[in-house]
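Sample 3 of the quickstart, ligand adenosine-5'-diphosphate:
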Amino acid sequence: MSIEKRVVIKIGSSSLTSRHGEISKIKLEKLANEIAQLKDAGHEVVLVSSGAVAAGYRKLGCLKRPDSLPEKQAAASIGQGLLIESYSHLFLSHGYVASQILILRSDFLDESRYQNVRNTLNVLLERGIIPIVNENDTLSTERLNFGDNDTLAAKVAGLVDADQLVILSDIDGLYDKNPTMHKDAKLIENVPEITDKIENAAGGSGSSLGTGGMKSKIEAVKIAMASGISTFLGNANKENISVDAVGDRAVGTYFNSKKSETTLNQKEKWIAFHSGSKGEIILNPHATDRMVIKRKSLRLKEIHQVNGRFENGAVVRVMDTNDEEIARGVVKVSSEDLQRMLQDEKDQAIDSTVIMEMGDFVCHLDAPITVGM
Ligand code: ADP
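Result:
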């Protein structure tokens, strides 16, 4: 059978739980039915599912969803297995095998480990398996995590070069203002680009169960757009929502994106979203345009100052004189050597030494660089 679309579907906790905060079997069944329909039609599907804490807190002995981090992580360690067991069982009843991938943000800091996860996901998808991805909630730390599953899903979509990201929530899509507070809020059905107006509409975070709210969904959309991936945002409770979303006929919000010259390639995605950064290079006032607009390699004579310690090959933040990050990329020289070269009496040969090669950096205009360290 030919492959139709490669799709990443993200579902939030609030769309998998009952009113009391426990996992709802009916909601899980509905999702599995729809994903099985997509598989039957020849699509490849990665599921990014929250819900580990919700599936485990009762068995931990808590009467309600816990608030403290150690209790949440303990609940997740019980719930993640139970959740996957339920999904596996449901998918098998449709003739499909599911797999579990738990990711830590630190797994992606190293480019070769990032590529490893990519290779694994590709093998699973090519063999017709349904990978179920979640952040490793039990081990992740607040200092170093993906933040929420919306951005994790967008990054996974970029990782597998998906055709579409589908975010299922408890709301029909993006409204022009928060619909839980404003009765006259109107659904926005098509968003060709993320403007200030769209960001303002998304406001702050939403329900007590989810961690992200609409703001984190817009962040996720921006990451998907930088990767040339369209996103659909819609209500998980609607009949056949996933199937209709992939068929481009669902009611909700479509954020359209096309692959273009500025779409990030895999290396650029890793630099922009996963690499972290070790130090800073501050440019001379007139050097910004050459890098951002002309995309030329960064040379020694354009550097004003170097902050922090980094090795040759590290990813470093490039700042303008107003302390704004304008790019991020891989350096060819360590901070120690760079400091020494800057102090040396300048001769022309050293001056034009390339410090960051064309193609080894991503400018801030291309992508929302969301992960600093
Ligand atoms: P999930 O758990 O599915 O990830 P969240 O609860 O985190 O979802 O986010 C969805 C919530 O965001 C909605 O229920 C709504 O309360 C809130 N929200 C805020 N602004 C908007 C908006 N402009 N359009 C839609 N929902 C919004």
